[in-house]
Amino acid sequence: MAGKPKPKFYVVWRGHEPGVYATWEQCETQVKGYGGAAYKSFPTFAEAQAAFNAGPPVATSQRKRPKGKGNVFPENPPEDRHDTVLPLPKAVTANAWAVDAACSGNPGQMEYRGVDLATGAEVFHFGPTLGTNNIGEFLAIVHALAAFHKQGIVKTIYSDSRIAMGWVRKGHCKTTLPHNTKTARLHEIISRAEAWLSKHPLAAPILKWKTEQWGEIPADFGRKH
């Protein structure tokens, strides 16, 4: 015979009315329909109260990274926005992923990633591998598009690379990276990305991140010199 379910206490850090709640129904009322809500359950009231007093945990991509490993995102959203934990300008939708790439050399060690603008979480990361920055920017956009298709969702994609956006719209990665044993794996990935684009119409908005107005894109790796 199953034992009596253990009680839980629910902390709402960001919601309609932040606090500690004794039932999921009460918690759900506070977070339902609240963009960027932050909440978690705890086994005891004491733990829940302590967690509430300490403030919300910082998402993986918000924690301070080693030098050269990306942005350090603030823990709290701007006062005029409740749909994100990031300092997004009003012109930017939080229902979006930002993508970016970094490369040490040309070619060099390249990696790319995507960041959810609502939560600040890193939603994907690839590399490092030998490549170029433009290839990484191209693959990052295709990676996001493929993820949306797989999950059955539609979000905006922000990229700060006009070149990569143009390649994606044309369905072709126009790179001059040599074909050799060191780049064979990356060229295979590029071919798969191009094949995917040829079979799937662009079903999500791909917008230019206006760095000159908004600062560095949230997926930036922080390696500019």
What's the gist of this structure?
The protein has helices at 24-31, 45-54, 133-151, 162-170, 184-199, 211-214; strands at 9-14, 19-21, 38-42, 96-105, 108-116, 122-131, 156-159, 206-208.
Please give the structural blueprint.
Layout: E1 9-14, E2 19-21, H1 24-31, E3 38-42, H2 45-54, E4 96-105, E5 108-116, E6 122-131, H3 133-151, E7 156-159, H4 162-170, H5 184-199, E8 206-208, H6 211-214
Parallel strand pairs: 4-7, 7-8
Antiparallel strand pairs: 1-2, 1-3, 4-5, 5-6
Helix content: 25-40%
- The number of distinct helices, counting runs of at least 4 residues, comes to 6
Major sheet size, sense and barrel closure: 5 strands, mixed
Question: Mean pLDDT, rounded to whole units?
Answer: 84
Radius of gyration: 21 Å
Which H/E pattern describes the elements?
A: EEHEHEEEHEHHEH
For the biggest β-sheet, the strand order reads: 6-5-4-7-8
Which stretches are low in confidence, meaning pLDDT under 50 for 5 or more residues running? 59-75
**Structural class per helix/strand content?**
alpha/beta
Secondary structure tally: strands: 8
Strand proportion, as a percent range, falls in: 15-25%
Sum up the overall morphology in one term.
Answer: elongated
Ends distance: 65 Å
